[in-house]
Design brief:
6 helices
């Protein structure tokens, strides 16, 4: 089992905490990954991808609001760590090692949280302080990256 995709789904969760679980849940629901005989089977239940998608869309909007706290603040960081570990466990379980996936996903989420923060701050400063274009670019990277990972 290659841990690179598992690590990268964690990175995606570090960028947007609910995008990765929404995409992983859709992948489980439509059969791209098989978690049906694991403790992660709930990801493939009929309602789960819809609920997670609504929450992910709300997060995409909330991220653009001026009073949204930093992703490095304890609640946001913890959420990213949990969702990265969960998504890593799902991809790992589909390949036969949920525990290895959980660890790789958690490590990836830390990298994505800290690296995504630095990426965004530096790009915003480079373009003169305009956050919205960079936030939208980060959204595109998170959604596109998660989709690319679960389809491979």
């Amino acid at each position: 089992m290659s841990f690179l995709p598992v690590f990268l789904i964690g990175v995606t969760a570090g960028l947007r905490s609910l995008t990765a679980p929404a995409v992983v849940s859709w992948a489980a629901r439509i059969g791209w990954i098989d978690v049906s005989n694991t403790w992660l089977a709930f990801l493939g239940y009929a309602a789960t991808p819809y609920v997670l998608s609504v929450l992910a869309l709300a997060e995409l909007v909330a991220d653009k609001l001026p009073k949204t706290p930093s992703r490095k603040a304890p609640p946001g960081f913890a959420a990213r760590l949990v969702t990265g570990a969960l998504c890593g466990a799902a991809l790992g379980a589909a390949a036969g090692s949920w525990l290895g996936g959980l660890i790789a996903g958690a490590i990836g989420s830390v990298a994505g949280t800290l690296g995504g923060y630095e990426f965004r701050v530096r790009l915003v400063n480079a373009i003169g302080g305009k956050d919205l274009p960079i936030a939208l670019l980060e959204d595109l990277i998170a959604v596109g990256g998660a989709l690319l990972i679960v389809t491979r």
